[in-house]
Amino acid sequence: MGDQWVPAVCPCCACLTGGGTCPVCFWTDDGQADADADVVRGGPNGDLSLSHARLNYAVYGASHPRYQDMVRPPRPEERP
């Protein structure tokens, strides 16, 4: 046996893509979660709140329309 790495769930698209910037939605995981999803923190996600990024993902397939050409579909093992 041994330790097995389990990827983190992206707070924006809910895919199992690990931390950092998600290749599926391009949200950068900065620790924001449901409790403060409506807050715009600035930082790596700029002027987006997590709530707005989730809406953008539902509409555009990316956390922001400007990232549509930078994302990819989730792999089968990454799907929520």
UniProtKB/TrEMBL annotation:
InterPro entries to which the protein is assigned, alphabetical: Cys_rich_CPCC (IPR025983)
A Pfam family: Cys_rich_CPCC
Domain Cysteine-rich CPCC: 9-78
Name of the featured protein: Cysteine-rich CPCC domain-containing protein
Organism listed in the record: Micromonospora rosaria
